[in-house]
Amino acid sequence: xxxxxxxxxxxxxxxxxxxxxxxxxxxxxxxxxxxxxxxxxxxxxxxxxxxxxxxxxxxxxxxxxxxxxxxxxxxxxxxxxxxxxxxxxxxxxxxxxxxxxxxxxxxxxxxxxxxxxxxxxxxxxxxxxxxxxxxxxxxxxxxxxxxxxxxxxxxxxxxxxxxxxxxxxxxxxxxxxxxxxxxxxxxxxxxxxxxxxxxxxxxxxxxxxxxxxxxxxxxxxxxxxxxxxxxxxxxxxxxxxx
Length: 242
Description:
9 strands; about 45% helix; 4-stranded antiparallel beta sheet; 8 helices
């Protein structure tokens, strides 16, 4: 028996990406790869997992399976994963048919953000000037208060900017999901489920938005990707772990 890593689920007629193979059961197929006989670093495995899913998604609709999912052999993939969950997997795959994920992240230009916060709040501007005039020790509590006010203002700005991005792009998507900021300077982190035929229009909208917001933030646009953010993780949890 050869242990196999499971990457995702696709329709039985789809072609598995290079270096992988398909285990077919009825109208479904699992994308798998035989486990390496030598130990491989986790980071390398994660990159390979992503590359395989992205290659699959370039050609077909794919339902990603959580990284690290492994099963004892081909028979286990069919008997413990594909067959018992057939109806659920087929329904999820059908819901994703013809769609890909496009991810938009926006990162603040720190100096521009702080200028905007100070300009929008006279109370912050006054406290900032007062703190600047005080000795280090004497201004301790005022600096704490200033940090709290600036932090709250940044959170308000983040909410407003996320709402703006979603309002512009969500009409072009079948679904949208706002995710937690990936870094402290992250203004927006949102995933969009988009019909393949709408990808070009969506990309143009992202480009226009990036130009509009360029003075305050920079956009990072990823995709097309497998629909990671729109996959119920129960799919992965039902699979056996090696």
